[in-house]
Amino acid sequence: QVQLVESGGGLVQAGGSLRLSCVASGIILSFNRLDWYRQAPGKQREWVASITTTGSTNYADSVKGRFTISRTDFENTVYLQMDSLKPEDTAVYYCNVRAGSSYWGQGTQVTVSS
Predict the structure, then answer these.
(1) Residues 69, 27, 108, 15, Cα dihedral to 10°
(2) H/E/C letters for each residue in 30-63?
(3) Where does the pLDDT of residue 22 fall: very low under 50, low under 70, confident under 90, or very high at 90 and above?
(4) Tell me: the pLDDT tens digits for 61-92?
(5) Residue 52 CB-half CA count within 13 A
(6) Which residues contact 28 (CB under 8 A, 6 or more apart)?
(7) Are strands 77-82 and 46-51 parallel, antiparallel or unpaired?
(8) CB within 10 Å: which end of the chain, N or C, has fewer?
(9) Long-range contacts: 39-46, Cβ < 8 Å, 24+?
């Protein structure tokens, strides 16, 4: 049974930093691409960043240069380091892995105050 658990969200002032974690069980993350998404109130879920099996990373233009996705294989965990946070980054952040089926975590709330 695949399970993804996000953590690390919270309330931070604009310009601050947070590091989100996505811990996986039932699946080996290094064998699969993992994506971070976010959903702000009243908006559609949007893609934020991805990391492939080879470690290649991609970012949405809105977070490029501020967010960094990384993976720690021995912990089977993917991180999203978020720096220079803006109020518009406020959202629930989800990790997602597609391995036959699409698996989502429960999400972690990030709130950036101005």
Answers:
(1) -10
(2) HHCCEEEEEECCCCCCEEEEEECCCCCEEECCCC
(3) very high
(4) 999 999 999 999 888 999 999 999 999 999 99
(5) 5
(6) 76
(7) unpaired
(8) N
(9) 39/91, 39/92, 39/94, 39/107, 40/88, 40/90, 40/91, 40/92, 43/91, 45/94
